[in-house]
What does this fold into?
Amino acid sequence: MKWYRSIILILAIVLLTGSGRRVFPEGNNHWGHGKQKKDMKTDNKEIEQNGKVTKKSLGARTILLPTPVWVIGSYDKKGKPNVMTSAWVGICCSNPPCVMISLRKETYTYGNIVERKAFTVNIPSESFTKETAYFGSVSGRDTDKFSTTGLKPVKSNIVDAPYIEDFPLVIECKLLHTLELGLHTMFIGEIMDVKANESTLGETNSPDIEKLKPFVFVPGNRSFYRTGENLGKVSSLAELLIKK
It folds into this structure.
């Protein structure tokens, strides 16, 4: 379980403030947010405290940022490998180790996961930004994404789903639960195994974020960003105030 705890830690760093909502609508190149619920009483209003403006209300919107960037692998009914980029994702349980992804029913990947009861999470490095953008902009119904990008799908020997050989970190999941939320359906997958390029591993034999070089997505301007520098270990930072 030490390995899984390390993976959960590295994903938590990548996620930062991951919101659990998908923002790459497969087959829709708008990369939009979907319909937002507006609160007519608070939208565009300023909140005052002691006569001073402290916060501006933005309404009930899914604008947490940044969001993670995961590429989800699956097989269709005929065994064709497909991938799509998703940002409405996150870690949801430590024991058993689980992740969640939220998809719209009209996506090709939604039907694949329902059919195959499995999926993979592929974490891209900075060198795969254009492929990652492409994976979230076209539908697997209409094109062979692996053929277009030249990346290689590999059949998992643990779950019924493909992963991307070229990506540095892969998480193989079996479908554990399905939850209908509204516009999106949440798939919870139990982590069955994690595969990583040796070149991305640190001293503790777990993924090193500086070697992995993942990136995040900002829904507001629909752009990718690099992760930043190390701000310090949590225990050390907390101790600065605990000792006061």
Notes: The domain at 2-30+64-242 is CATH 2.30.110.10 (Pnp Oxidase; Chain A). Residues 3 and 206 are 7 Å apart (CA to CA).
